[in-house]
């Protein structure tokens, strides 16, 4: 991060941020439209059954399929080196995504995998991430609420503590769910990113040095070939390249949560 900031400026650390928001918007919009015009439920009720769960996961799968071309374009914009990248507009992600679907736009190499080959790994990663995060979120939230209830029964709590107990369990549960799902699925995410970027003539930064660029020259034929190639040529650690950034990300996230809790409790105590 220091090398990038020194050679390319702080903007390089925020590249692709706009397209990331666009992908989130496309995902939410697609999910809303699909659930509106189909019987697939957007939310699962407390009295759920296997059919309802299956229909809900089918909705999620269709949503990931619709958003996949834009996710691919956003990923390329995020990893493309600032040294060789032209100034692109905020809607370039939409243009590239549509171009990827209809086969027009920026020329790609013959190594580019068709979108049909990317459907399974993309949907698999998205659905597994959703399932793992949902289970962990509900589990952590249940434990925290039970702990809070027991503490309330054991001793009377102040209004300040009651306010904290009302809001912070949700934040902690979301944090734990996101952390666990990202850590568990990191190897699959590595494979997914390599498949999406292959053949797009993307030039990435050399993260070991910070001032060189590297072309993407992989020749993966699909998800299985990508997994086998990484295992043979790079070993199991090849699936965890860049994992240190995830550790830093969630360390900062935890610090922000703790600081927010301290500030919030201080403000509430002063107002009492």
Automatic annotation (TrEMBL):
It comes from the Eukaryota. The keyword Transmembrane helix applies. Solcar repeats lie at residues 165-267. It is a multi-pass membrane protein. One of its GO terms (cellular component) is mitochondrial outer membrane. The keyword Transcription regulation does not apply. Keywords: Membrane, Mitochondrion, Mitochondrion outer membrane, Repeat, Transmembrane, Transmembrane helix, Transport. One of its GO terms (biological process) is axon development. It is found in: Mitochondrion outer membrane. Belongs to the mitochondrial carrier (TC 2.A.29) family. Transmembrane protein of the mitochondrial outer membrane that controls mitochondrial organization. May regulate the assembly of the MICOS (mitochondrial contact site and cristae organizing system) complex which is essential to the biogenesis and dynamics of mitochondrial cristae, the inwards folds of the inner mitochondrial membrane. Through its interaction with the EMC (endoplasmic reticulum membrane protein complex), could regulate mitochondrial lipid homeostasis and thereby mitochondrial fission. Associates with the mitochondrial contact site and cristae organizing system (MICOS) complex. May associate with the endoplasmic reticulum membrane protein complex (EMC). This is Mitochondrial outer membrane protein SLC25A46. It comes from Rousettus aegyptiacus. The lineage of its organism: Eukaryota, Metazoa, Chordata, Craniata, Vertebrata.
């Amino acid at each position: 991060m220091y090398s990038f900031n020194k050679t390319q400026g702080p903007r390089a650390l925020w590249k692709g941020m706009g397209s990331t928001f666009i992908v989130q918007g496309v995902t939410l919009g697609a999910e809303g439209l699909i659930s509106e015009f189909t019987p697939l439920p957007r939310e699962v009720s407390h009295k759920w059954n296997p059919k309802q769960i299956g229909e809900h996961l089918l909705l999620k799968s269709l949503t990931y399929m619709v958003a996949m071309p834009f996710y691919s374009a956003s990923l390329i914009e995020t990893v493309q080196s600032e040294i060789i990248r032209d100034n692109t507009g905020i809607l370039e992600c939409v243009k590239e995504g549509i171009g990827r679907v209809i086969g027009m736009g920026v020329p790609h190499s013959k190594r580019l995998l068709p979108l049909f080959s990317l459907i399974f790994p993309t949907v698999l990663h998205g659905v597994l991430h959703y399932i793992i995060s949902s289970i962990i979120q509900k589990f952590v939230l249940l434990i925290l609420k039970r702990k809070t209830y027991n503490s309330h029964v054991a001793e009377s709590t102040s209004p300040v503590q009651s306010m904290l107990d009302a809001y912070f369990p949700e934040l902690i549960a979301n944090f734990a769910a996101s952390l666990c799902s990202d850590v568990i699925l990191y190897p699959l995410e590595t494979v997914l990113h390599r498949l999406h970027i292959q053949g797009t003539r993307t030039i990435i930064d050399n993260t070991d040095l910070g001032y060189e660029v590297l072309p993407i020259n992989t020749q993966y034929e699909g998800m299985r070939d990508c997994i086998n190639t990484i295992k043979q040529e790079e070993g199991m650690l090849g699936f965890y390249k860049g994992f240190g950034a995830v550790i830093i990300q969630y360390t900062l996230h935890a610090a922000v949560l703790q600081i927010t809790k301290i500030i919030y409790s201080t403000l509430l105590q002063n107002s009492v």
